[in-house]
Design brief:
heterodimer, A: two-stranded antiparallel ribbon, 60% helix, B: alpha/beta, OB fold (Dihydrolipoamide Acetyltransferase, E2P), Rossmann fold, Ubiquitin-like (UB roll), 14 helices
Chain lengths: 320, 444
Amino acid sequence: MDKLIISPAPHIHGGDSVSKNMTGVIIALVPALLVGFYFFGLGALIVTLTAVVSCVLFEYLIQRFLLKGETTIMDGSAALTGLLLALNLPSNIPVWMIIAGSLVAIGIAKMTFGGLGNNPFNPALVGRVFMLISFPVEMTSWPRPVPFSTAYLDAETAATPLAMMKGHFGELPDTLNLFLGNMGGSMGEVSAIAILIGLAYLLYKKIISWHIPVSILATVFIFTAILNWIHPEAYASPVAHLFTGGLMLGAVFMATDYVTSPMNTRGMLVYGVGIGIITVLIRVFGAYPEGVSFAILIMNAFTPLINTYIKPKRFGEKRK
Amino acid sequence: MKTFSIGGIHPKENKFSAGKKIIEMTLPQQVVIPLAHYIGAPSEAIVKKGDLVKAGQLIGKANGFISANVHSSVSGKVNKIDVQLDASGYKRPSVFIDVEGDEWMENIDRSSTIIRECLLPKEEILKKIQNAGIVGLGGATFPAHVKLSPPSGKKANVLIINAVECEPYLTCDHQLMLEKGEEIIVGITIIMKVLDVKRAVIGIENNKPDAIAHLSKIASQYKGIEVVALKVQYPQGGEKQLIDAVIGRQVPSAALPIEVGAVVQNVGTTFAIYEAVQKNKPLFERVMTVTGKSAAQPSNYRVRIGTLLSEVVTLAGGVPEGTGKIIGGGPMMGRSLMNLNVPMAKGSAGILFMPNEESVRKPMKNCIRCTKCVTVCPMGLEPFLLMNQSERNMWPEMEKERVMDCIECGSCSYTCPSNRPLLDYIRYGKTTVGGIIRSRAVKK
């Protein structure tokens, strides 16, 4: 006892850390990833590896040589961004496009704002939307699911259910196949069940709360149910809307990104409802068949406003 | 099971000294009795160098309304009156007494017979509590008689006894309940009489089932006293949190518990009130826990006020090998001590040894806006925002974000995955904003 350490209270810490949270989300993504590998085979593997490696590498290079500071690649957030980007891509997209997307995600959407914690927009989604606008053809021709396929760039393509809804052609897969993920689409978004398993894990580990995913899914369900009830011929059923496109993946993994979502549960509900409404508006009335990415990015922009005006329930606040 | 409604955390309890019988601390050679405890004006010394004093004799007279009498805890000769560094890091005027024998004031009843009847009128009871120098033993050391005299026009309708002991490691209240259960219940009837309330509720967390059972059994023989088992959740011992947990009423911002008809007293204070009123014994000793993961024998000790902590530690087996930090109080709200040559004060509930590896904070990282600090804040505040504002000296904004509501429980810093020192910054802001508010009041 030669020297005692003096510091203000509290003197104990719960042991939570940034990397524990990031690792938790990565673990929650494993089911969706496995389904992606199953249906899209080799292509999915190449896309995932490219995205993860290039995101981590870009973060390292920027921190090491441009910012000349500490590198934080070990916290797992760059790897997670890469993983989320990969899951949002068709698995037959060329490698160089993925690298370009990763550079935009990490370099522009994350590091220019000051790195983890300071970015106003979800980096993976910025990367994806950049690719969608720059490479519209490659980004919207999805491969047909073939178990353990060894095809990559040469994979046979198929229309996604959302495109079918929009153009009124083809026959939608039945609900069971929608639920399992046996349909065309980005490699991580197809299987609702895999994503829901991930959600259960995130909730169990208290990494996220239920507010954002539930409010998004409920809003989309109610909104599309009303449309479907008014005009069943023109508008698809709410179940089809829930299980198709990037909605599940977006609601569970993209919209719940810590940095870009509101800071209290009341705000999260407003944010979730906003994403739900914008998604349906784009899907049903917009030019694009899918609108989850845009909806999340638009609501990301509203997050500071939500944080300013919607405060958590204060202790002793009058109960209404 | 009941608990408070907003936020909260559940740190590892580590109650190593639970169930350990209270050990009577041997008398030291010298005691150093601070004339000021943490809250209120220092009392005025009424003894001088060379005076002979007995245990329980008044040596410091309360000075003002929020101030408490101080009594000698030993018999002996006053050596000097001088300033002494106390456990909170402040220099306090203190009375140094060389111990000779152990003679108590004649009117103190030293027997262990329990006196259940109290026929005194309430004014007289209040006077006795005031004379005995009783302060809140939960840590804040607010004078008990002030708390028991609600401002005119306000009336309490329920007395809540804080037996939560939500700080990890500490067990002094728990052990006191097991050993002095009946005395505590009599103490409650006395406070009920003073406040003129018909109902008293003892809130105990359910990690102390033996205390819940013991007190429930005794309370069943008395009218209007009930025991409520509470879900283990920190900071349930916070006054506002406890009231919310027990009777479901939330004290508004900046208001006192009396606003919702409640008065809260700590269980140790209740025992001290029993001793003062029924046994004529002023507050000059208390139970404290000496503990830690590597402590030789984590235990509970009855210690005279003014005993140097180093003597308590020696009796408890010394400072364990590899200790990096010594905390006065619990790990969530206690203060780290510079050394052990500080006297035990009325609010000292424990000495905790932290091993080296737990003593140093981990490096801080960027805020990842995970909202965990907001989720755990028991007052519904936004710690991340308050810290940002404090860093930028945004005092009016901090006041608007209710920084003054912060109870400094530390749940935010405890939870933060980026190891951000949220409470350090909030405390700094709170002190500054508090000063601004006071100077505004003076100008008016």
